[in-house]
Amino acid sequence: MQCLIIAAGEGSRLRSRAASKPLAEIAGRPLIAHIICRARAAGASHFLVVTGYRPEPIETFLAGLAQDEGIGIETVRNGEWQRPNGVSVLAAAPRLEAQFLLLMSDHLFDPAMLASLIADDSGAALTLAVDYGIDNPLIDLDDATKVVADQEKRIVRLGKTLADYDAIDTGLFRTGSALVDAIRVSIARGGQGSLSEGVQVLADRGAARVHDVSGFWWLDVDDPRALALAEEALGGGKKLI
User: Fold this and answer.
1) What is the full DSSP assignment across the chain?
2) Which of 126, 129, 127, 161 is nearest to 146 (CA)?
3) Which of 124, 183, 203, 210 makes an SS bond possible with 130, Cβ 3.0 to 4.6 Å?
4) Contact predicate 58/31, CB 8 Å
5) For 199-225, what is each residue's pLDDT tens digit?
């Protein structure tokens, strides 16, 4: 299955540790290499990475990784990388397959977590892996996207500012062309182009659902604290692949 990875943002909160967040080193390897290798171990077969901020170093690294590891990796640039992350999906749209995985370049995860999402072939337009363990100390609740789902596992609403919620968005999606269309619809309605806005369009149609990955190890590496936690986990014996 094709895997789209968004790696276009600036990553300002890690500027003191790396000029480009996807290239921040954890246990001797750039963050994006960990993401790709874990996705490959889970079943992703080839990759499309959206770059934006300082694209050349990332693209050069990925070309070397593809050659060294025998992985199919293509890149596409988002010239509007300052805009919300859904715009990166639109930048990749001409090269996306009908069904694909969508990952963030800064969300580490146990490969078994993604494998379970791949196996969840519900036929929904979008399936989002969520963690119901909202007391997980690894989660930065101030920055996390919160999710409300009904008893049929359909997404009702999501957003960073929800006061009442059931679960946390882990940044792992199984989706397809319907998401691209939904992001375009959200922009046409006055939205900013965020991924969450596109997901909400699908949720309002009853076409977006959740997949429970509670109990799996994952981490949003978005600031120095999280980078240190990742280094402790991956460099201290928590080998996930």
Assistant:
1) -EEEEEE-S--GGGTTT-SSGGG-EETTEEHHHHHHHHHHHHT--EEEEEE-SSHHHHHHHHHHHHHHHT-EEEEEE-TTTTS-THHHHHHHGGG--SEEEEEETTEEE-HHHHHHHHH-----SEEEEEE--TT-TT--TTTSPEEEE-TTSBEEEEETT-SS-SEEEEEEEEEEHHHHHHHHHHHHTT----HHHHHHHHHHTT-EEEEE-TTS-EEE--SHHHHHHHHHHHHTT----
2) 161
3) 210
4) no
5) 999 999 999 999 999 999 999 998 889
Q: Which residues pair with 168 in a beta bridge?
A: 131, 146
Beta carbons within 8 Å of 175's beta carbon, 6+ residues apart: 99, 100, 101, 102, 125, 126, 127
Question: What is the token pair recorded at 183?
Answer: 């992001």
- In this structure, the number of other CB atoms found within 10 A of the CB of residue 64 comes to 12
**Whole-angstrom distance, CA of residue 79 vs CA of residue 91:** 8
pTM over 0.90: yes
Q: What is the pLDDT of residues 36-71, one digit of tens each?
A: 999 999 999 999 999 999 999 999 999 999 999 999
